[in-house]
Prior knowledge:
With about 230 residues, the protein is an alpha/beta fold. It is about 50% helix and about 10% strand. It has two domains: about 1-30 and about 110-225, Rossmann fold (3-Layer(aba) Sandwich); about 35-110, no CATH class. The longest helix is centred in the middle third of the chain and has 28 residues, at about 80-105. It is globular, with a radius of gyration of 18 Å.
Amino acid sequence: MNRIRVFGLTGGLGSGKSTVAAQLRRRGVPVIDADALAREVVAPGSPGLAEVVAAFGPELLRDGELDRARLAQVVFGDPLARQRLEAITHPRIQASRDARLAELEAAGEPLACYEVPLLFEKGLDASLRPVVVVSVPEAVQLERARRRDQASEAMVRARLDAQLPLADKVARADYVIDNTGALAATDAATDGVLAALCERLGVDASRYLALTPPQATGGGAGSDRFG
């Protein structure tokens, strides 16, 4: 059985990671979303949720589910609280990721993408090379994130300040996808990077690029554009 090759996908707030991930999925590349795993490991009734509640209090529960907005208020700006939370969730997220990759490898998948918002911040770049960064100017980040999250500029800037600047991520990337323009241009750029990744990793690109993928729904103003 051939070993699956895994590359990282990241960007900044509002840069458009989900847009690129959607095109990869349309091309047949399995994409594992770290944010989705983070939600799964604290799902209702899970050991992860029980441990978070034990650490931070039952007031974080709403109808049996984790109130993620309230938890964010607790840990945002408090490094010690964030470390406590990560000590609970990160090992579970990693175990879930590894299990998904093992399933994909057993199914004969040669390539997979791991989408991680804080890839560089968490030091995952060494194990997830090559790394693809989705990039837009900061002004575009601000505008898209404000519209998507219905948030004030101050709130968005605070979240941006908590991340490594996107320009720094671009400087450390193996491949960069510019998501500033039309959706079709981003999809074409994603296809180009996918072809380069396949060549670099020794994967047959025709598995993904020989057929025309289903058309993306929505346009430049859709919420999927901003992830």
